[in-house]
Structures are given as C-alpha cells and as structure tokens.
Amino acid sequence: MQEERRLEILGILIIALSVFVLVSIGGYNPSEEPSISPNVQVTNPMGILGIFTAHFFIKLGFGFSSIIIPLLGLVWGWFLFAKKELADIIRGTNYGLGTMALLSVTIGVFSIQLPMEDAVSYNVSGLIGGVLAKLALDWLSIWGTSLFLIAGFLMIIRGYFNLDYYGPFVNAKEKWDTWRTEKANQKKQQEKDDAKRLHTQDLKSKIDSQKERDEAEFAPATPDPVEENAAEQVEEELEPETNEEENLTSPPTFDEIQPEPENDLESVPESETTLVENETETTDESDENLNIEEMAQTEEVDIDEVVERQKPKRKYQLPSSELLANPVNVSDTFTRDELIERANYLTQSLATFGVEGKVVNVHPGPIITLFEVEPAEGVRVNKFVALADDLARVMEASSVRVIAPIPGKSSVGIEIPNQNPATVFFKSVVNSPEFAEAESILSLAVGKTTSGEIATLDLAKMPHLLIAGTTGSGKSVCINTIICSIIYRATPDEVKFVMIDPKKVEMTLYRQLEGYHLLKMEDIQEPIVTSVDNAILALRALEKEMDRRYNVLADAVVRNIGEYNEKMQNNDESIMPYIILVIDELADLMMLSAKDVEAPIARLAQLSRAVGIHLVIATQRPSVDVITGVIKANFPSRIAFQVASKVDSRTIIDQIGADKLIGRGDMLHLGTGSSDVTRMHNAFLTLEEIEAVMNHVSDQPKPDEMILPTVREA
Predict the structure, then answer these.
(1) pTM of the model
(2) How far is the C-alpha of 639 from the C-alpha of 466, rounded, in Å?
(3) How far apart are the C-alpha atoms of 614 and 604, rounded to whole Å?
(4) Which CATH number is correct for 441-708, 3.30.70.2740, 3.30.2130.10, 3.40.50.720, 3.40.50.300?
C-alpha cells in the first residue's frame, strides 16, 4: 500500500514538472536573456525560472525538438500514477529521445542551408543539434547528411511502429506472380469450359435424338410420297380410258383423299422447330427459377480492442492479433452465369446416368459449392448416393459428397469442391465478432462453414471433443487451433493444459508454456508427457484432482466451477483454473496399455465437466479397438477429418461422409445432442505463427505455480 502511495506521489510530481517545462518552452522568446535582475521584462508564462528553463532546453539543448522531453515526462507521470506496466514506456522513451536528436540535427541543417538564423545563435536547433549539423555538413556535405538523416528516421519508424519495409516488395512480387497464375488458370479454365460446353451440347443432341426416336415410334405411319407417285402411274396405265362424265360422276379414290406429299414434308420440320423452341423456353425458365445464394461476408473486428481483453489481468497481456499472418482476401471466383452453367451440367450429367432431377438452389462457399437437387417424381434418393464417384469423375472433382436428403428439406445436396479453394486463415476467425466477443474463455476459433460463415465452438458446453482423421487431413492443425484459441482468450491463471504427445514431435513448440499454461505434476519431470507410463500417471493425477475439486465445491456450497469462481471473485480470492487435457494420438496409448488408459479417460469424461476439466483427444486410426464403446459414449461432440473408409467414418460420427472429404482441414462436426453433422473448414495456423504466440507468452511475468500432487504408491 505504501509503495502504491509513493508511486502516485511521484507520478503527480513528474506531471507537474513536465507541465512547467512544456509551458516554459512554449513561451520561449529569443530576445529574453536569462537574468535574475528584477528590472527585466518577463514575457514567459512561467516567469524568470521559465526563461532559464526554456533557454537551457532550447538554446543549449536540442532546440524546439526538446518539447519531446516534457511530453515523455507527462506519459511517465501518468504511468506511475496509474500504476501501469513500465516495459512499453521504456521502449517508447528510447525511440522518443532518438527522434528528438534527429529532429534537432535536421532543423540545424535547414537553418544553416537556407539560412533561417545566424549559424551561431542556435535559437531553433539548439547548441547540440546545431553543432552536430555543422559537423555533418562539413564532413559529409548536404547529400551525405541527408542520406544518414533519412536512414535514421526510417530505422526509428521501423523499430517503434514495427512497419515492414520489405513486405510491400514481397507483396508486389506475390501479386505479380498471382496475377500471372490467375491468367494461366483462366486460360486453362476457358479450355476446360469449352470442352464442357462441347460435351454438354453432345449430351443435349443425344437427348434430343432419343426424344425424336421415341416420338417416331408412337407417330402414325405416313405413306412414302415416292411410292404413292409410282402407284398412281401404274394405276393410270392399267385403267381403261373413260369419258369426262364418268370422271365427274365417279366417287373419289383413296389416293385422292390422302394429303399431298409436300404438306406432309413441311409439317415435320415445323413440329421439330416447335419442340426445340419449347426446350429452349424451359431451359430459360429453369435458369430464371434457379436460386443462387451469395457467399457469406464475414465482419471483422480487432480482438485487441475488445473491452474485456483490455482489463488488467495481473500484469499479463493476452497475445495480439498482430502476431498472426494477415489473411489473403479471396473473392467469389464464380459468376452467376458460371454457377448456372455448372448447375445445368450437373442436371444433364445426372440424366445421362438415368436419374432425373433439377437444381433448385446453389450455395457457393470458399472451399465447396452445394447444389440442391430436387429429384423427379418417383426417383429414390439412394440413387444419388450411388452416383457419388461417377459425379466426381464427370465434374472433375477430387470427391463429391451427397447429402440424401438435406435435413428438413425434400431436396438432395451435392457438395462439389471448388477448383481453386480458398484458405481460411486463423487471424480472420480470431478477429471475427463471433470469437472476439464470445463470453466463454473456452471458445474455439474453428474456421468457416461451407457457406463462408465463421464457425466457433464452446469447449465448456461440449464438454469433451474427440477428433479423428488420416495423416495430412488437418487433425494436428486443428489441435493447434484449439490450443491457440484458448491462449488468445485466457491467462495462465484461468486455464491450464496437460499435454500428452506419444509421438514426441507434435507438441514440442508448446514447451515454452512451461511455468505459464502447462500444468506441473509432482510425479512427472517432462513438461510435455511423451511416455506411456507418464501418461498413465497424468491421467490418475487428473482423477485425483477431479475428486479434490468436487470436495472444494461441496464445501463452498456451489454446483460447478463457474459458480465457484464467481463466488471467489466477489470475495477477492483466487479462482479455480480450467484444465484441458490434450492427447494427440490415442492409438499409441491404447495399443500399449488399453486397460490403464481407457478407465481413467472414461471416468474423467463422465464426471469432470462440473469441475472444469475438459478432454480433447485425437487419433488417426478411428477403429473400434481405439475408440471403444466406453470412450465413444462419453464424447458426444466429435470432429471427423478425411478418413480412409466408410467404416472409419461410421466409427467416429455414426454415419458415412468423412470418407468423401477433400482433406486439408475439411471436416464434419457432430454436435452434442444431435445426429446431424455440419461441414466446416478448419482455420490454417502456421508453425511460425505458433512460435510467435509462444514467444509472446514466454515474455510475460510468470504466475503462481499449480502442482498436482503425487499419485505414486509409497
């Protein structure tokens, strides 16, 4: 308390002195010489002492650039008075003093070259700045002096504002390369579109020919005009000559009743023209009725400006979004005409396989495009599912996923990957309102949905998460996204991690969290658990901690960790941190010691939610001997990345579909209490970004340690 009082008094004193110096410099008059004579006329607002002060700082110091000194003093006084962290102000002071010296020399150079004043008066640049400017001009000339002054200002701006001078050149080169690549891709795409257009015309001509053949089978037979003329000539030769009266009174013959050949020949092309016109009108009407949805536009905010993040948290600063790579803006690459053409091509392709239906809605997204197909009357939806591989071949896609039917609709969904899929950057999700303004500190910046909307999850509500996917599908990136999402929202006093990495290489970057977010255990010396024996000890230690926490909640007469922490904060006491158990590869643990691993995981998953312990478990082999029924039953929330087979897909999310994903972060999420899956695209997070976040955390003051007691038997 006395220390805080002393800091406040010192801050007030520094602020007062800074204001005095600032006003004195502002009232400087070159004609006023410092004197203690009572007959001197004083114009400085701070009196005779103000004249001395201004003369010292301006004429003997750095000239008018000396005004930076009292400005820095005001900032120092406020930081001391408000008891804020002084690390940033020390760095700013160094750059401020360097700027003052450069400004003084620059003003001195101008005053000598123009000239603005007598070279020895130093009323503008100050004695120090003027002498340095004179020496620089004598030794380096105006060109060399200007070169070094500009270099000095550029270095200060680069250091303080962290501006990247090299970045624009790299971006310009990347834009040039991107433009060239886009032009080449457009040319290739145009060639593909021309080939598809020819294929579409060929399909249409085949369909028209088939319709004409079908109509010809049911049309009435028409005599051949050539044969009629030949028959008439034969009859005329065989019949005897008759007089005109017989011709007038005789009844009309059969040949006279028949329509003339010319009229019959003209009727055929007229009917064909009508048929083509009707088909054209139908196609135009279907294009007009086709609903093209717009890709969702995500709103961006700065997570660093959120009020909750600016509150003081025991001198710990949460990571800034500036540590993350800037997202590349990717606009919708499909125009309405292109989407209509792809929809018509899909409809015609379905017709060639004997499945009638029409596309009624198109939902373009950053990675895939969803086509809603309304099946024709009497067409079974399982026919669409059987055509998934054939449609992938025809549409030139790596894989096609069929949703038969779309939940809550009568249409069938066909998800086709885009030819140039966009990348979902982690920074764009972190700076979204859905994540930045979320209330829970366990909110996860997962990525985006198929329509481009931001997708976030709350680990506190899941309450545990099971992840599966083959190598290269994005499983490890998803784990990194989950860990960094929590680090961006919670301090080490609020959330602790227990990380188990049997592969020993996936989580090495998080060793820097030791002493911060990583939970220390008395039985284990390594910060990241890698051996099976230590993993079993860690699971048993968490079981023991869970039982202890239940006793604490019972003594405090509360039901869960949220109520307990709220009660502790009202009494200004320390809170109970959440604990997140992260296991990167469950299969290795289950193969070596299934019984010792399965039992504690199942018990933690059943009981640990109320006391703030949550599990995130991942595996690349989602077989029934790894994800057993006991484990699966206690993980209602699951994420499936691309898997090898339909059996693996059913094992993780109880349905097929994960085997049709395209990889690279493409995933299906099965939510708690729901049988419907949601397709999402996981945010991409590079190792350089993770390293930058870890360096930021390691630069923060270390909190009080939390150690789990031993569970070894004596």
Answers:
(1) 0.63
(2) 6
(3) 8
(4) 3.40.50.300
